[in-house]
Write a structure and sequence with these properties.
The protein has 443 residues and is α+β, with helices and mostly antiparallel strands. Helix content is 28%, strand content 22%. A 7-stranded antiparallel β-sheet has the order 14-11-13-12-16-17-15.
Length: 443
Amino acid sequence: LARREGIDYDAIPESLRDTAVEPGDPVYPRHRSTYLRGGAPGLILHPRTTAQVVEALAFSRRQPVPFGIRSAGHGLSGRSTNDGGIILSVAALNSIEVLDEATRRFRVGPGAHWSEVAAALEPHGWSLTSGDYGGVGVGGLATAGGIGWLAREHGLTIDHLRAVDIVVADGRVIRASETENADLFWAVRGAGANFGIVVSFEFEADEQKNSVGYAQFVLDATDMAGVLERWGATVEAAPRDVTSALILQRGAPPIASVMAVVDSDDPDTIISRLQPLADIAPLLQQNVQLMPYAEIMANDHGAGWHNGQGEPHARSGLVNHITPEFARAAAAAIWDRGLYWFQMRAVGGAVSDVPPDATAYAHRSANFSLVTMGADDDRLNSAWEGLYGHMSGLYLSFESGLHEGRIADAFPPATLARLLELKREWDPTNVFRDNFNIVPSED
Ligand SMILES: Cc1cc2nc3c(=O)[nH]c(=O)nc-3n(C[C@H](O)[C@H](O)[C@H](O)COP(=O)(O)OP(=O)(O)OC[C@H]3O[C@@H](n4cnc5c(N)ncnc54)[C@H](O)[C@@H]3O)c2cc1C
């Protein structure tokens, strides 16, 4: 393992030298890859303060190599590792502090994990809906959307964002909120990775009961299309305190894993909410627990360094309703073997209350988010031929194909036009291009 071409290692700023990691360092194997992607960067910088992020950015801009931002390294769409380039990791910016008890305002660094956020909020009787896995980082998720266990009741993670501090391409540290740099604040909530490095997020948490109902059902999915359709109809008919996810798998018999959170601490309410979900197909296994929200999010078990290999191949889509036609196409795609992972999450509810032009995440009418993964991009695409026509957009956190067509799927024309204008203003030389790039030179 040797130093890579194009990086002036001698020019690494003094303040970043002791924490910088390069090929050949004993700790390099712990930093080279991410959760899902194998990599071999030429340099990983670990700033510990905002001032050091500014220095790291200025240095990186002078090196003619790929440049990626890493918070907690769970990205599918972003390139938070690369081959021969620089990674600016904000993992050390991971503090969590309460700003105001009365308004439930708190500040969190991009390097914090969502399990840590949930644990820190719990003693205050608060929560913030984020995702389903506690190891995911604040930086990647809170700049894209955030489809979590309380989505139908409380909306997306970005809907709770009140302000950010962001280091933009020219090195300025900009505060953005509804009242300061409001356009940039709009863009950060759905397309943040194109605009800079967010070094601090201020959120408003929700009040949270001590416990919620958490269910895991395994169902016989022999009637795969029927199970999918009934799950969709049941979720749409459920009160907003229910948010559910579904994984469908081939097999003998094929299996549906249904997970659901019911935001209630009353066992009778929880059972009555869950019964319709348990009734959609023959029940093979069930597990229902009353547990703190933070405990559901503590599912990363203190995961340490990443050891991803190869490239993730993921296709994402947002779906308004699970129609019989979509359910049949989905079942065919699952049996087609081009994909090994098929998971749907509920959105809708409070997510759809927010007007589509309020944030760069615009596909607010969707009730469901689909993520599929395959071993090979071409086979995954061919499995998607029958699915694509049923989609009404995509969520970029679950997509690995960065080409232009997918950007148009993620952002409707008016949103994309506004993003393009803002990209020209804030990042005219396209420094931040590792993730779903909105190219500023386009008309
Ligand atoms: C196991 C697993 C479960 C998941 N579950 C969910 C879920 O339930 N709901 C959901 O919404 N998503 C989910 N995701 C997707 C997740 O939200 C994205 O992958 C997210 O980008 C990961 O954030 P990260 O900071 O860990 O990733 P990183 O790999 O560190 O970052 C990903 C990209 O985000 C951008 N980025 C990161 N930090 C910053 C920053 N500080 N400022 C600006 N841009 C930045 C960069 O472009 C970077 O390449 C899941 C992912 C995995 C792997």
